[in-house]
Amino acid sequence: MADSKYQQVSELVDKARHGNRNSTDQLVMLFHEDIFRMVYYRTRSRMDAEDLTQEIFMQMIKSLPGLKKTSRFKSWLFRIALNRIKDFYRKKSILNFFGTSTEVDESYQEISQNDDDPIDKLMRKEFWEQFRQFTEGLPRWEREVFILRFADHLGIREIAETLKKNESTVKTHLYRALKKFRQTPGLHDLLKGGVP
């Protein structure tokens, strides 16, 4: 985020913390797409992503008065989202264990609204499927850092704040993941071709 956007967000957060409804609504609008994309990538279900995104913003509104540093709002919000996703999977695994899950198996779909070109859509779908397979093969922290950096577009400092790790640890995990990424020819070739 540029400095002016950081300043704008900081001011909105400060007003929202003191009960300004308009500022709260603006924060939701500013970050809704980012949070939805983040959740959707991790759940691969539009319905679950919509529900979780709503829960994340409800948690944000409830917890906002306790946020001490307004400059860390984005990483704080992403941490709320990661925790909600973990809770979602914990609950899901319990339901699956007891055989009470009503889960519908949905195939992963690209979020993009541009469905004009079927070849383009197919290539995007192929890229995201390979991206998912690649990240699932990474150790936990390499996977989290890589996804936060390249799917969620967070900077190193924001990732460190989100994961509560120091920046040098984040850089090490990112370096290791990137090294593995460069050794994965399918993904690398798709990227060279400009997908997505």
UniProtKB/TrEMBL annotation:
Residues 27-93 form the RNA polymerase sigma-70 region domain. GO terms for biological process: DNA-templated transcription initiation. Keywords: Sigma factor, Transcription, Transcription regulation. Signal peptide: none annotated. SUPFAM superfamilies: Sigma2 domain of RNA polymerase sigma factors, Sigma3 and sigma4 domains of RNA polymerase sigma factors. Transmembrane segments: none annotated. Residues 130-180 form the RNA polymerase sigma factor 70 region 4 type domain. Pfam families: Sigma70_r2, Sigma70_r4_2. It comes from the Bacteria. GO terms for molecular function: DNA binding; sigma factor activity. Belongs to the sigma-70 factor family. ECF subfamily. This is RNA polymerase sigma factor sigma-70 domain-containing protein. It comes from Desulfonema magnum.
